Amino acid sequence: MNKELLSLLVPKTQSLEKTTGSNDSITPEDINMVLSYSSLTKEEYNFLLMKFVSADTYRNAFVSEIALRHMDKESKVLEHSFLNKLINLAVIEACEPKCIFCNGVGTITTINSISKCPHCTDGVFNFTDEIRNNLLNIDNFSKYKKMHDNLTTIIQDIEMSALSKIGDT
Ligand SMILES: [Zn+2]
Fold first, then answer.
1. Structural domain count of the chain
2. Residue 77: what pLDDT?
3. Distance 71 CA to ligand 1 centre (A)
4. By C-alpha distance, which of 6, 65, 44 is closest to 162?
5. Segments forming the whole domain that contains residue 120
């Protein structure tokens, strides 16, 4: 299954748009069926729904699962709330890399010119350590860089495993 199909699970707003009722289209039920047979772990399931369906709805569940997994190792050194922030940041970097300055276009257009957007590479936002400092409200991200790298690796592994289980590789 192509991951893009997961977007079919997005709850449709009660719009004026009538469902066409065609028989051969893929329905949310079909997608749920694939998901339920693909033996995803809870983390993988939540990751897919968070990234491709609704970040706001599923992010907390995903973040607390990752936090739980790391509590033992990290709770001695880190305040729990800060660990959560760090995980949230890694999750945002994994899920929403679209540049907010140019809307993911990669260029900034003014009346007189088109220039390359300084905040991203081809529309994918550049998370620099300076930006991470700002987002975490700290001034020494380098201290947490290793932990952040670990979290990023964990999240990437979950994504790869999840996508291969649903057959999108
Ligand atoms: Zn940009």
1. 1
2. 58
3. 35
4. 44
5. 30-165
